[in-house]
Amino acid sequence: MSHRPAGTEHHPAALVLTSIGTGIALLSSAIALANRATVGRLPDVAAPAGAAVTVCIPARNEATRLPALIGDLRAQTGVPRMRVLILDDASTDDTGAAAVGAIAGDERFTVLRNEIEPCPGWTGKAATCARLAEHVDAPTLIFLDADVRLAPQAIAAAAAELHRRGVALLSPWPWQRTGSAAEAVVQPLLCWSWASTLPISMANRSSRPSTAVACGQFLVFDTAAYRAIGGHGAVAASPTEDLDIARVLRRNGFRTALVAAGQLAQTRMYCGATELEAGYTRWLWSAYGGSAGAGASVGAIAALAYWVPPLAAVAGSGMTRRAGLLGYSAAVAGRLLSCCLEAGGPIKATDVFAALAHPLSIGAYLGLWARSRSAHRRGELRWKDRPLPP
Fold first, then answer.
1. pLDDT for 67-105, tens place per residue?
2. Largest alpha-carbon pair distance within the chain?
């Protein structure tokens, strides 16, 4: 009778699956490490912006968030020719009055009011951005969401970086802050999704639309290039107009680049689980080209990489368990590396706990994707009390 030596595997298939998953997690962690070391950042000290800059803020029902951003913009330095346009987009709260109060007579600011609903085939945000852009005559055009917070040198740094790189679109990625358990589990996946899969230094040099990354909370355009592609009219119906406008620019021969804003720009996109669920449900169906098959394939790869190794670490033995521990550790490391890249500073205890919960994050993401696809199929998608284009 032969005896299997201690520590060898009783379930070869489990070892194979765990090893594949661990290999994917290790590769993702290696990409995140490379990005942490190489992704550009907005400079903490920026030379004054010589050219005129116009900042555009689309605002619908933002009475509680907008005043803080206005205060940040009033405190900007190094931008002597800055103009700020705010479009109160048919808000049903006191957005307009809150904006006027926060401006306190600062002549650099103009508040506009829109009462017209978006034309068929347009999202509310794309329509609002297009209306704002009609009033811009500066060579640099910046779009900001009302929930963004800025350091005093942020606008000058962003404008200078746009021109230094010679690109048509610069996307400074804001630090995504969280304030609840649900946000801490899900929101860091935004940065992690590209930081662990795409070498950004290579992507910034590429002309391929598929490698473009952008965040609509903070977009810096060369105005001439923006108008050359038709502005937001080119992405009128898109639920992810930020990413799609970067792709349109690349298809038309323009360059785009992503940098980390770090401490210069931060935001809390959603406040609590209810807002987070509604926000992701609005657009997540469109991920992977809106293809259910592609989404299911990505979900299967994510399950293999981020569920199988931790399960093997808990329930496996011998080589399978060791491989699982390695894969789970790689996943946690990749998550923490993306946090460091995004924040531009030391990680916090909450970041560590959220990273340890990475398998739960993947489950939450896949659940939100399925919910979003279901709502889109039923024609139930809405955002800020407006139906979204089908």
1. 999 999 999 999 999 999 999 999 999 999 999 999 999
2. 92
Instruction: Give Cα 127 distance to the centre of its chain.
Output: 20
Q: What are 226-229's contacts with CB under 8 Å, separation 24+?
A: 226/133, 226/141, 226/168, 226/169, 227/133, 228/252, 228/254, 229/254
- Domain 53-272: state its class: alpha beta
Q: Quick one: average pLDDT of 28-52?
A: 89
Q: Answer yes or no: is pLDDT of 228 > 80.
A: yes
| Separation between Cα atoms, residue 45 and residue 154, nearest integer Å | 9
Average pLDDT of the residues of the chain? 94
Cβ neighbours of residue 325 closer than 8 Å, sequence gap 6 or more: 309, 313
- Cβ atoms of 120 and 40 within 8 Å: the answer is no
Residue 83: CB atoms within 10 Å: 18
DSSP string, 8-54: --S-HHHHHHHHHHHHHHHHHHHHHHHHHHH--B--SS-PPP-S-EE
Handedness of CA 334, 336, 342, 344 (dihedral sign): negative
Q: Which amino acid is at 344?
A: G
- Digit-coded pLDDT (tens) for 130-142: 999 999 999 999 9
Q: DSSP character for 153? A: T
Buried b (16+ CB within 10 A) or exposed e, 28-52: bbbbbbbbbeebbbbbeebeebeeb
Residues 164-191 as b/e (b if ≥16 CB within 10 A, e otherwise) read eeebbbbbbbbbbbbebebbbbbbbbbb
Which tokens sit at 119? 């034309």
Q: Is the confidence at residue 45, as pLDDT, over 90?
A: no
What are the residue ranges spanned by the domains of the chain? 13-38+277-383, 53-272
Task: Round to whole Å and give the CA distance between 335 and 226.
Answer: 34
Q: What is the pTM of this model?
A: 0.93
User: Is 281 in a helix, a strand, or coil?
Assistant: helix
Count CB-CB contacts under 10 A for residue 301: 13
The pLDDT confidence band at residue 54, using thresholds 50, 70 and 90, is very high
Write down the residue that tokens 């795409």 correspond to: 198
CA–CA dist 67, 54 (Å, integer): 18
